[in-house]
Write a structure and sequence with these properties.
Elements lengths: L2 H30 L6 H22 L6 H14 L11 H7 L1 H11 L9 E2 L16 E3 L4 E4 L2 E4 H30 L1
Parallel strand pairs: 1-2
Antiparallel strand pairs: 2-3, 3-4
Helix pairs in contact: 1-2, 1-6, 2-4, 4-5
Length: about 180
């Protein structure tokens, strides 16, 4: 891959990281606002956050089977020494949010009761007799966990992964700029 192309991909991932940080800050501001009950705004910010995280992930771990995308992902992961176990390599939560209609279809087909809990901020225990499959979006601020139909995602792990990739991108972009200057001098 040409250094210029690598620079473009890494710069886009850096922009997506900045957008994710803005969305996270928005979600945190909503949570910390005195007397705030606007769970819709909080979950909208979380959805935006996960969309930007997914955009970063797709640059390094493309879901496409196209050979070009696979080569790009391999090259960029190698350039930043990213493993396939990196927290941003997993996109299950983003997929749940992006394909929410499919998840509702699954729930409607298999649900024995007409119960659903959605856009809840608090501990899962506050829901009492709700089955985990009836809980669609719950954020537990005490554990930084996002729970979707019984699956638990640690948002702090995802955020730590975003910070890690951001640091690696900045270091790599500095290296590419120095290397470019050496060739133009």
């Amino acid at each position: 891959m040409l250094n210029f192309h690598e620079n473009v991909y890494l710069s886009e991932a850096l922009k997506q990281s900045r957008y994710a940080e803005i969305s996270a800050n928005s979600a945190n501001a909503i949570l910390l606002a005195p007397g705030s009950k606007d769970t819709g705004a909080f979950f909208a910010s979380m959805h935006h956050y996960m969309s930007h995280i997914a955009n970063i992930s797709k640059i390094f771990w493309p879901t496409s089977n196209r050979p070009r995308a696979k080569r790009r992902g391999n090259y960029l992961r190698n350039s930043l020494t990213l493993s396939n176990t990196h927290p941003l390599s997993k996109m299950a939560l983003r997929n749940h949010l992006e394909h929410f209609d499919d998840r509702l279809d699954e729930w409607a087909e298999n649900n024995k009761r007409s119960w659903i809990a959605d856009e809840i901020v608090g501990a899962p225990s506050m829901l009492g007799s709700f089955d985990s499959s009836e809980i669609f979006r719950l954020f537990d601020p005490n554990t930084s966990s996002f729970i979707f139909r019984g699956e638990v995602y640690n948002i702090q792990d995802i955020e730590d992964g975003r910070s890690d990739i951001t640091r690696r991108i900045i270091d790599r972009l500095k290296h590419l700029r120095v290397h470019q200057q050496d060739h133009t001098s």
